[in-house]
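Chapter summary example.
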Amino acid sequence: MKELTITSENFKSEVLESDKPVLLDFWATWCGPCRMVGPIVSEIADERDDIKVGKIDVDEQPELARQFGVMSIPMLAVIKDGKLVKKSVGARPKDEILALLD
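The structure predicted for these 102 residues follows.
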């Protein structure tokens, strides 16, 4: 499944009301570590049909970044049944990102 661009307009339907766990990648175009994590997150989106993967550009969606208390990026968050269950800040290898989903 391709990753989704999450905005304040589709956040409720794509994330809070999702029947699958959602991996959110909070990122920005100017962020070097985000450019390292981005391809890994895309790979996970392509490989896993049991989850949704959403990307949130913190510059374009500052209200969502505030809602999640994003102070540093990249930040990954896992949402299950509309609730935040795990989050991780900083660049991580693929195995650590996958471990967030377990």
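To summarize the output: The beta strands are 4-5, 22-27, 52-57, 75-80, 83-89.
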